[in-house]
Amino acid sequence: MDHFLYRDGVLHAEDVPLAEIAASVGTPFYVYSTATLVRHFRLFDEALAGMDHLVCYAMKAASNQAILKTLAAEGAGMDVVSAGEYLRARAAGVPGDRIVFSGVGKTAQEIRIALDGGVRQFNVESEPEMEAISAIAASMGVVAPITIRVNPDVDARTHAKIATGKSENKFGIPIARARDVYAHAARLPGLDVIGIDVHIGSQLTDLAPFEAAYAKVAELTGVLRADGHDIRRLDLGGGLGIPYTRGNEPPPLPSDYGDLIRRCVGHLGCEIEIEPGRLIVGNAGLLVSQVIYVKSGEDRDFLILDAAMNDLIRPAMYEAHHDIVPVVEPDAGADQHAFDIVGPVCETGDTFARHRMMPPVGPGDLVAFRSAGAYGAVMASEYNSRPLVPEVLVKGDKFAVIRRRPTFDEMINRDTIPEWL
Ligand code: LLP
Q1: Is this prediction's pTM over 0.85?
Q2: How far apart are CA 319 and CA 314, in angstroms?
Q3: What topology is assigned to 4-31+282-413 in CATH?
């Protein structure tokens, strides 16, 4: 459920008509609903009730300071994958002991920054990384808490570009080697080995792959404890999918996922962490755009928008589907017409949807891409020298620009000219 509904014939974000934001901010822009963000966070938090747990929002999905502060105020921890994300979380007021540092290639600089500012744990992805963290921690006179990410060789049954739990993927250490790697970690001076981490992919619409992975983690917990390791924390990753197409069967709910976690690992007495990103922010955000032209082609009509692949890359990159709806509510029996919905960027890949049935829309009309809150603004670029798309946050009847659109001069003046030119 989200808080983007038609009221009096106009799509609203909570109590604010989108046309009002468009008039003030210009298009395209992202808009997020505070109520939806908070609701989704609480669904996860409640799903794990009764277990010692921390929901660490995977901020790679949407990392605006205002979004982080909204979730941090709810008690969220953060899952970060770079020094930039770590520092963003700290700037939003998240204490180090609520920040989990994931990512397959942490640099020495990133490790130092996190150790210096405080970190809940590093999720270690390889033996060389483990040695680097130990050496850096020892040189700083501290001990780094770590889990080791195991690759359970489970098929997440999602898009190939976002599946991470098969042996051919770059992530984690093969679960079959876990005993050796944990023994190695235990011998390193700068590490406190506290647990196990697993993450098998994103946009999972079926619980079975989670169950397969978590069963392997539960078994490994017993094996490692028997080897003498004090396994007391399990980071079970993120990945629960969201409904992108209205009317299709929705993916399992956070409560189903919580029940599965309880069933698979609840008896182990470990502290549980999860790292959801998409489910918290995906359906809490829209991309709003204006129709520039309607162009009749040889065998199809094109709806040309002022948003493009640089603003929302998911359709071009993952063949992702986003529902696109007019901001002014169409009449109930309105005729539908097929369009290819495209942006102005000079690539055929700049196509949001092919042969999409739409009610009557024309130049100047506003449309909204649903489910665009996750991996939308954060993956935007200035390709074609289009200024970075702004972000807006709504709360009740209030809205605020939480990242403004840069001016053309700001964009151009970031470049510097060598003295020989
Ligand atoms: N934890 C780790 C270690 C991850 O790699 C990810 C996502 C998450 C948590 C959060 O997963 P989520 O709950 O959001 O599914 N750009 C792609 C998605 C990439 C996901 C990368 N890792 C997209 O637009 O579909």
Answers
A1: yes
A2: 7
A3: Lyase, Ornithine Decarboxylase; Chain A, domain 1 (2.40.37)
